[in-house]
Amino acid sequence: MQTSLNDINPAAKIVPDAASNLNKKDQVAEMFNNIAGKYDFLNHLLSMGIDKGWRKKAIAIAGSIKPQKILDVATGTADLAIAAAGLNPQHIMGIDIADQMLEVGRKKIADKNLTNIITLQTADSAALPFATGNFDVVTCAYGVRNFEHLEAGLKEMCRVMRSGGKVVILEFSKPEHFPVKQLFGFYFKFVLPIMGRLVSKHSRAYTYLPESVQAFPQGKDFVAILTKCGFKNATARPLTFGITSLYTADKP
């Protein structure tokens, strides 16, 4: 069933804690701050290391226009920003709403001697503090699903990118074919939340993940949203049997 653009992001209604009085953005920030110390370990463990290959594919697409200025939205612990440093840009800016995730990212950047290339700062995707047309490429790995205001965030990503620039987005998706659909569904719904809860000690973080993936528009639906938000030539490429999707689009 396709998602109506009038109901542009059903995942906006999915929050880490339905009993909380905080809005989605603040709940997401609080959740990631709480799991920041375990995030990288769990990310690689629960994806069985496949996430590194997904990032390589995203960076290869970004590198096709030889970007000098890159913005990584919802950078988290800066894995994608660090991978993008291999493109030899002048500068990479990473932004996130979770300060503790950024602190982990800054340590990784310092350990890799990349502080002269990568800068991290706290900022909200819905109100990016950058000039119009400032970046050649804007990337986002597993962050758009967490936007409280998806359309506002995507429009801001388009605004700060120069004409002819490229957006590259990785996001979880739902496999559609037997038996991967059934196996992944079982793993995502039952195994992942238990493992995530045991390691992170956070009761909801890895239950929120499959719930938000289930609700988030994917494939052609998300391509239509990218187009609506000002991009052109938007495409969706399923990776690893559709567990993840790689979305790309250009700015007119």
Describe this protein with a few key phrases.
seven-stranded mixed β-sheet; 8 helices; 252 residues; Rossmann fold; alpha/beta
Give the SSE order as H and E letters. Answer: HHEHEHEEHEHHHEE
Shape: globular
Indicate the CATH topology. Answer: Rossmann fold
The helicity comes to 40-55%
Structural domains: how many: 1
Structural class based on helices, strands and sheet pairing: alpha/beta
Strand order of the largest sheet: 3-2-1-4-5-7-6
Mean pLDDT: 91
Q: Rg to the nearest angstrom?
A: 17 Å
Please tell me about this protein's structure.
This protein is α/β, with parallel strands linked by helices. It has one domain (19-250): Rossmann fold (3-Layer(aba) Sandwich), CATH 3.40.50. It is built from eight helices and seven strands, in the order ααβαβαββαβαααββ. It has helices at residues 24-46, 50-62, 79-84, 99-111, 150-159, 180-200, 205-215, 220-228, and strands at 69-73, 91-96, 118-122, 135-141, 161-172, 232-239, 244-250. Strands 3-2-1-4-5-7-6 form a seven-stranded mixed beta sheet, with helices on both faces. Helix 4 links the parallel strand 2 (91-96) and strand 3 (118-122). Helix 1 crosses helix 4 (99-111). 44% of the residues are buried.
